[in-house]
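Bench notes, afternoon.
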Amino acid sequence: MIADQQKPFADVDSSRQNSDQEKIIALGTQMLQVALGFDDLVNRGATPQKAMTTLLNTPGDYNPKIIIGLEHYQHQVVTMTTKELRVQDLEEGMFTAKDIEAKNGLLIVPEGHEITASVLQRLVNFSVNKGMGVKEPVHVNIVSDNNELLDDVESTSQPLEV
């Protein structure tokens, strides 16, 4: 799928594939092509409807059936809030806004990584280790899709479109 994602739809048409596995891979490639094209257009400022129209108007590049399936897409505006927190206040589902490092400079969690249960446990282990420790505060992004108000006055919010 990844190898063919830049090829036009006409070159990876699943109806031309012989085996079921080839058809599944071709369909996955076509879905990836549409998702990437759609995301690119929306990130450049197109409305979801305009992005779909643009994709449909490029015959042979994208599978029109998949584009039409996007009509059910629910465009939402979410808020990403950046907060500075101590390790003990981190929760699963947050994303690192900056690299998290040990006090000696060792990279523990890179920027953009999701805080999962295992990442959280790793950070707790580093923070209680007297020889290491974690540079605090830790900068994380919190995504809210229901416009919850976050109570930290040190937060900075910016709307993101998805």
